[in-house]
Design goal:
- The protein has about 90 residues and is of the alpha+beta class.
- It has one domain: Histidine-containing Protein, Chain: A.
- Helices cover about 35% and strands about 25% of the residues.
- The protein has a 4-stranded antiparallel β-sheet, with helices on one face.
- The longest helix is centred in the last third of the chain and has 13 residues.
- It starts with a strand and ends in a 5-residue tail after the last helix.
Length: about 90
């Protein structure tokens, strides 16, 4: 399993639109992808699970991927978060 740690800089954290973009990006890959925030780990392909984490601006999250396209998936998700979800 590959993993990357990143800080969410978006104004609303991983809520509504940013969470939706995160899920859409995650669903493009066959790898199992998870997000860990504090002590909770959830499926990154589930909007309700991500919203349930309560990730706010400035929060540090870990994104993990396991599968044949894990590297590509992590790079895409890391870029999405680093680019502030296109805003």
């Amino acid at each position: 399993m590959k993993k990357v740690d990143i800080t969410v800089k978006h104004q609303v954290g991983l809520h509504a639109r940013p969470a939706s973009l995160f899920v859409k990006t995650s669903q493009q890959y066959t790898s199992k992808i998870t997000i860990t925030f504090e002590d909770k780990t959830v499926n990154a392909k589930s909007i309700l699970s991500i919203l349930g984490l309560g990730v706010t601006k400035g929060a540090k999250i870990s994104i993990a991927a396991d599968g044949e396209d894990a590297d590509t998936a992590l790079n895409a998700l890391k870029t999405l978060v680093e680019n502030n979800f296109g805003e």
